[in-house]
Task: structure prediction
Amino acid sequence: MPEMTLYFALHILLIACAFGGLALAAFIHFRKRLHTPIVCPVGHSCDPVVRSDYSRFMDIPVEILGVIYYTVTAIAYAALLAMPELQTGMLGAALLGLSAAALLFSLYLTAVQGFILREWCTWCLISAALCAVIFFVGLRLADIGALGFIALFTETGR
Result:
């Protein structure tokens, strides 16, 4: 049996997080479409959050954005696992940018839960945690560090 490398293990973690997020976003979407209550794992309702005015962005349900994000992430990291040479190209940088945007959007939605709605959705918090794991593990895989990541997107003269 081949030795499991850190590179392989981190990619499997990223793909697993992406599939977990995809399942979670799809679960919320289908529960909303069926008009059935969404009960959080801690026993209270997530409905005040997932059915609020903040559950749409540019008239697109947030969970659909999640489905798209997590699907792209799973496919892209599976491609990087199969073809590691792509990690140093634009795909790696694009994935980092996408996961940074997803993390920032999740932080915004978490702030909305706490400060505007004053309601919490455990499923939404799990999704935000998955976004954080995907970003920070992706940053580790890129081996550029936080300052290198910022420099990627602020560098001029390219």
In short: The longest strand covers residues 56-57. The radius of gyration is 17 Å.
